[in-house]
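Dear Dr. H.,

I hope your travels went smoothly. While you were away I took the liberty of generating a structure for the chain from your last submission, since the lab meeting agenda had it listed for discussion. I wanted you to have the full record in hand beforehand rather than looking at slides cold. The sequence, exactly as received, is reproduced here:
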Amino acid sequence: MSRASLALRVALLPVAVLAGVWLHGQSVSVAMTLMPVPDTGPLSIAVKISQGFLAATLNAALACYPLARLYGRVASGVATLIVVSVLAGALQAGSGAITDAALLLQVWSMACFAALLFGGIWLARRRAGDSAR
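The corresponding predicted structure, in token form, is as follows:
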């Protein structure tokens, strides 16, 4: 790896993290638009669970390949920074009075986000034929 390539990767790190956080927010908005939660009824919890998984899937589908191509072996480290940033924002936003069901839904959403992002990066690196696993 040349010095210029390393310098570019380091310079783009804050941009990549901010883009990942922004993409997560947009994915949540798209999921909420595509799957509106009914006001009452037994399906409201199921729809919220599906919204978290859909947002994580959209985010992973859009972010994994570019991260794997740009950062290679250290893409998982960049993904960790993105997950920690999103988690910090979610903890700050949910610092008020929160019910057990809302906390469980937030944990589910973050777990799906992290698992699909890391899994997608692993698959993208493997598909690209990255020999240094």
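Two observations you may find useful: Helices lie at 3-11, 13-34, 43-71, 75-93, 100-127. The chain is about 80% helix and 0% strand.

With kind regards,
E. W.
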